């Protein structure tokens, strides 16, 4: 599997190291990286031109950049018939973008993979929603205060209460989880979100509560942060790696 990577920040560097150096996925190799500024790397093609990147010898493209980048480049990836893995799932709050991705992937038979990222429980939410057995979904994200606000605080503070549609506009680097949860379940308007800044914690915590005809679920996950970007949970990078690993599997746990 020849992989192209968009973005070489915290998650991108992790994926590059795990795939090309540690050989975690024996059949995969990252052949090319697209960056919006020039850098040189050993043994890998770095492109500043997206067209040249797209035309290089790659068949799967992994986005590890940001919402703006995937909105700009995602549709062209699908038109080129390449498969696409998206971690900045917040882009799907834009319904026109979402529709475009569905239409193009169908038209060009390109597959799109959306990793579970920094949360768990999407299997339950998706299954329950199938037969309208899901009534309410809430996610409470609690992060170290410095990841969410600039001013020092000495007690936890609820900085946002509302829905996923609004949360991702206000916190595009912290609320991607609310969008993948919305896609699996009740949509961005019905998925309730609370974001809390806490000066006393070091882990990124997400608490998902849902109920309906299926029963109820309460999930709490406490994620280690990535060293270079503590806003991002280590699990998000692991989840992306796992998605890549599973792409060509013939037997899947779903
Ligand atoms: N789905 C989920 O659960 C989660 C999703 N995320 C999302 O994953 C994404 C990556 O996270 P992370 O690695 O921590 O972020 P970083 O900010 O560490 O890295 C992003 C990288 O992308 C580069 N970049 C930005 N714009 C472009 C562009 N147009 N073309 C190419 N490269 C670009 C940046 O370069 P430069 O610095 O030069 O601008 C930077 O190197 C973010 O959108 C984040 O919000 C994070 C955690 C969980
Ligand atoms: O990494 C996390 O814990 C969640 C996050 O930043 C996001 O969803 O955007």
UniProtKB/TrEMBL annotation:
Residues that bind NAD(+): 118, 176
InterPro entries in the cross-refs: Asp/hSer_DH_NAD-bd, Asp_DH, Asp_DH_arc, Asp_DH_prok, L-Asp_DH, NAD(P)-bd_dom_sf
Active site positions: 206
Reactions this protein catalyses: L-aspartate + NADP(+) + H2O = oxaloacetate + NH4(+) + NADPH + H(+); L-aspartate + NAD(+) + H2O = oxaloacetate + NH4(+) + NADH + H(+)
GO annotation, biological process: NAD+ biosynthetic process
Domain Aspartate/homoserine dehydrogenase NAD-binding positions: 7-115
Keyword list, A-Z: NAD, NADP, Oxidoreductase, Pyridine nucleotide biosynthesis
Origin superkingdom: Bacteria
Extra remark beyond the main annotation: The iminoaspartate product is unstable in aqueous solution and can decompose to oxaloacetate and ammonia.
Name of the gene: nadX
Protein name (Swiss-Prot/TrEMBL): L-aspartate dehydrogenase
Pfam families cross-referenced by the UniProt entry: Asp_DH_C, NAD_binding_3
Family: Belongs to the L-aspartate dehydrogenase family.
Keyword Transferase: no
Role of this protein: Specifically catalyzes the NAD or NADP-dependent dehydrogenation of L-aspartate to iminoaspartate.
GO MF terms, alphabetically ordered: aspartate dehydrogenase [NAD(P)+] activity; NAD binding; NADP binding; oxidoreductase activity, acting on the CH-NH2 group of donors, NAD or NADP as acceptor
């Amino acid at each position: 599997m020849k992989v192209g990577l968009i973005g070489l920040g915290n998650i991108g560097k992790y994926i590059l190291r795990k795939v090309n150096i540690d050989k975690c996925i024996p059949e995969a190799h990252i052949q090319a990286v697209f960056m919006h500024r020039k850098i040189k790397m050993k043994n890998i093609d770095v492109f500043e031109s997206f067209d040249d990147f797209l035309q290089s010898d790659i068949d799967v493209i992994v986005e590890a950049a940001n919402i703006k980048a995937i909105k700009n480049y995602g549709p062209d990836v699908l038109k080129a018939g390449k498969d696409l893995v998206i971690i900045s799932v917040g882009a799907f709050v834009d319904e026109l973008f979402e529709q475009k991705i569905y239409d193009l992937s169908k038209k060009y038979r390109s597959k799109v993979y959306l990793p579970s990222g920094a949360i768990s429980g999407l299997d339950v939410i998706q299954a329950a929603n199938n037969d309208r057995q899901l009534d309410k979904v809430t996610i409470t994200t609690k992060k170290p205060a410095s990841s969410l606000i600039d001013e020092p605080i000495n007690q936890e503070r609820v900085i946002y209460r509302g829905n996923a549609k609004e949360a991702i506009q206000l916190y595009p680097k912290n609320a991607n989880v609310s969008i993948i949860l919305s896609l699996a379940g009740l949509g961005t308007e019905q998925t309730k979100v609370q974001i809390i800044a806490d000066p006393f914690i070091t882990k990124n915590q997400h608490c998902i509560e849902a109920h309906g005809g299926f029963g109820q679920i309460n999930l709490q996950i406490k994620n280690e942060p990535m060293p270079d970007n503590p806003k991002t949970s280590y699990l998000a990078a692991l989840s992306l790696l796992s998605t890549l690993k599973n792409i060509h599997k013939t037997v899947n746990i779903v």
